[in-house]
Amino acid sequence: MHNPRVSFRAFLLLFPISAFVLVLLSSAVILKKSPKTTQIGHFHVHNHLQRASSACDGTLYPELCVSTISVLPDLASKSLPELISATLNQTMHEVRLSSANITNIEKKLKSYNTLEEAAINDCLELFDNTMAELKVVRSGLGPKGSSVSENYHDLQTFLSAAMTNQQTCLDGFACSSGNVRSIIKKGLHNISHHVSNSLVMLNKVPGVNKSKPEVFPGYGRVKNGFPTWLSRRDRKLLQASLNETKFDLIVAKDGTGNFTNITDAVSAAPNNSDTRFVIYIKAGAYFENVEVDRNKTTLMFVGDGIEKTVVKASRNVVDGFTTFRSATVG
């Protein structure tokens, strides 16, 4: 006759053994899968680093380039324009740091000469210019680089300008006896190196046409002696005689115009205008340094001709001016 107590005891004895066997089997399955999981992980890391290395190939600062883009998730699926955008984001972060750094230095300096003060102000303006230029490039890259091939030369020019700004900032302290230059130098070099790497990556974007068959390649395609991007109205302005040109403002030394100096006329011009703003400068010698802000985007100066309308100035380092501020018109 079947004894239920014996069966129950047998169950109690067999249950721990069965559970132990199941644990072993489960462990075996897990142990069996681990090498495959590890291989997938290694493969992913390899692809990640390979993509970073490929994108940074040919750059002057490959270690900086790789360390900048290798932190991006899913790097293997990113296009070159996306990698350039990521580099520009880091560059703009560096610009903000450098701007804050030089502002703090200015506050902490107990005394500084006129030239150092001018150089510090130059740097702050140049940082603003750099930020504006990098933003233009970033927006011109597009989500997948669709517009890069069309705007390649413009993007290249903006990046080159952004890189030059850093050296111009440092040059302002060339004749200074202080240590501001040495303090800010590393940060500015980082910015320049990032921009340099971006320029190299830009050259490698698929579909970019780097050939320059035109006489003036910076103007783009030329038709009938004018760049194709120049509007019909602007072409007419360039071809029109003085009598046929409509002026928005007139500068005249004798007081017969709207202003007696060019600087005031430039200040009165609208910012970020979509249409050409024409300033006629009558014959005369204008002794002034004309600074045109980057917001004055569509200005056109018209004079009475060589040796008739003359703009001159004499700023120099001896008088406490940096090279950046010494241009007669800039």
Descriptors for this entry?
mainly alpha, Butyryl-CoA Dehydrogenase, subunit A, domain 3, 7 strands, disordered N terminus
Find the count of extended strands (DSSP E, 2+ residues).
7
Could you spell the SSE succession in H and E letters? HHHHHHEEHEHEEEE
The largest sheet has its strands arranged as 3-4-6
Query: Considering the protein shown, what is the CATH homologous superfamily of the domain at 79-203?
Result: Invertase/pectin methylesterase inhibitor family protein
What name is given to the CATH topology of the domain at 79-203?
Butyryl-CoA Dehydrogenase, subunit A, domain 3
Which word captures the global form?
Answer: flat
Strand-residue fraction? 5-15%
CATH architecture field of the domain at 79-203: Up-down Bundle
What's the average pLDDT? 84
Instruction: Provide a count of the helices.
Output: 8
For the biggest sheet, the summary is: 3 strands, parallel
The CATH class of the domain at 79-203 is: Mainly Alpha
User: Residue share in helices?
Assistant: 40-55%
Class inferred from helices and paired strands: mainly alpha
Radius of gyration, Cα only, in angstroms?
Answer: 32 Å
Question: N-to-C terminal Cα separation, in Å?
Answer: 112 Å
> Which regions contain 5 or more consecutive residues with pLDDT less than 50?
1-33, 39-43
Keywords: Aspartyl esterase, Disulfide bond, Glycoprotein, Hydrolase
Protein name: pectinesterase
Pfam families: Pectinesterase, PMEI
GO molecular function, one term: pectinesterase activity
